[in-house]
Design a protein that fits this description.
Radius of gyration: 17 Å
Number of strands: 9
Order of helices and strands: EHEHEEHEHHEHEEHEHH
Oligomer: single chain
CATH class: Alpha Beta
Distance between the termini: 12 Å
Helix content: 25-40%
Strand content: 5-15%
Largest sheet: 6 strands, parallel
CATH architecture: Alpha-Beta Barrel
Shape: globular
CATH topology: TIM Barrel
Length: 258
C-alpha cells in the first residue's frame, strides 16, 4: 500500500493546477499506484475565508472517502476559526488540518495558533504544516511569502508534546534540532520526503539514521508537483524493505488511525 500525506485539490490563485479535482487526482493516483492520499484545499490557502475551501473540498471528495482523506485548512487569525474547526471535525469528518501561518498573517508562536493546536490535539487531529507552498522562483510578483523558519517549528513541537505534527515541503532538517539524533525534542512530529535529497546530501537517509524510519512519510506534493520524483527517491534510498514499507504507508496509517 502507498499513502501520500502531501496532496491537494482545488484551484490555486496564482497558478493553474492539473489533476486538481477528486476524479482527476484519482486517475493520477491509479497511474502511480497510490492507494490513499491526504488532501486539503489549495484554494483555502489564498481565500480570505479558508472555510469556503474546506466546504468545496468536502463536496469534491464525497464518495471517495475510501481513498481521499480530507484535511481542513484553518486560519486561527480568523475570528470564526473555532466554529470552522468544529464543523470540519464533527460534520465533515476531517481527521487533521493544515496550517499556513505565513500566508494567513500569524506566527506559530502567537496565542491564537497555540490555542488552535491545543483544540486540534484535544480532538485527536493531526496537524500538518507545509514549510512552503511553491518554489519561490515560481511565485507571483504580487506577493512575497517566505518559508517557515525551522526554528519556529522547533519551538512549536516543544510547547505541544501531545500534538502530532507532519512537516511538509521542507529541507535542511539535519541542520537544526529537528533532524538530529538525541535532540531532546518530543517524538511528536514526522517529516514528509517531498523536498528531501536522496542522493547528493542524502538528507532522507540521514533522517532515517537519526530519527528512525518511523518518523518519515511518503508524500508527492501533487498537483503542485509531479509525483515521479518522490518515487525515484524511494527507489534509490538505501533502506530495507521493512523501512520502505513504513515510509510508504505504515507510518501514515498509524498516525491517522487507519
Amino acid at each position: 500500500m502507498i499513502v501520500d500525506v502531501n496532496a491537494y485539490l482545488g484551484h490555486f490563485a496564482f497558478r493553474r493546477l492539473r489533476y486538481n479535482t477528486a476524479a482527476s487526482l484519482l486517475t493520477l493516483m491509479d497511474a502511480k499506484r497510490i492507494d490513499k492520499a491526504i488532501v486539503s484545499s489549495a484554494a483555502a490557502i489564498t481565500y480570505r475565508n479558508a472555510q469556503a475551501g474546506n466546504e468545496e473540498l468536502t463536496q469534491d471528495v464525497r464518495g471517495h472517502n475510501d481513498r481521499l482523506i480530507p484535511f481542513a485548512v484553518i486560519n486561527p487569525f480568523y475570528a470564526g476559526w473555532r466554529d470552522d474547526l468544529k464543523i470540519c471535525h464533527e460534520e465533515f469528518g476531517m481527521t487533521g488540518l493544515r496550517l499556513y501561518p505565513k500566508w494567513h498573517n500569524y506566527e506559530l508562536s502567537s496565542s491564537c495558533c497555540r490555542e488552535l493546536v491545543e483544540a486540534a490535539t484535544e480532538r485527536d487531529m493531526v496537524i500538518s504544516i507545509p514549510i512552503r507552498v511553491e518554489d519561490n522562483r515560481q511565485r507571483s510578483w504580487l506577493l512575497n511569502v517566505p518559508d517557515i523558519p525551522l526554528e519556529e517549528i522547533v519551538e512549536l513541537v516543544k510547547k505541544h508534546p501531545k500534538a502530532r505534527f507532519i512537516l511538509l515541503n521542507g529541507i535542511g532538517y539535519t541542520g537544526c534540532p529537528l533532524g538530529r539524533k538525541d535532540n531532546g525534542l518530543p517524538s511528536n512530529y514526522a517529516i514528509g520526503l517531498s523536498r528531501l535529497s536522496a542522493v547528493l546530501r542524502d538528507e532522507l537517509g540521514q533522517l532515517i539514521t537519526n530519527l528512525g524510519a518511523g518518523r518519515v512519510m511518503f508524500g508527492t506534493g501533487m498537483p503542485f508537483k509531479y509525483p515521479d520524483p518522490a518515487f525515484v527517491k524511494m527507489d534509490v534510498l538505501d533502506a530495507s524493505d521493512a523501512d520502505k514499507e513504513k515510509i510508504y504507508s505504515q507510518n501514515a496509517r498509524d498516525w491517522l488511525r487507519l
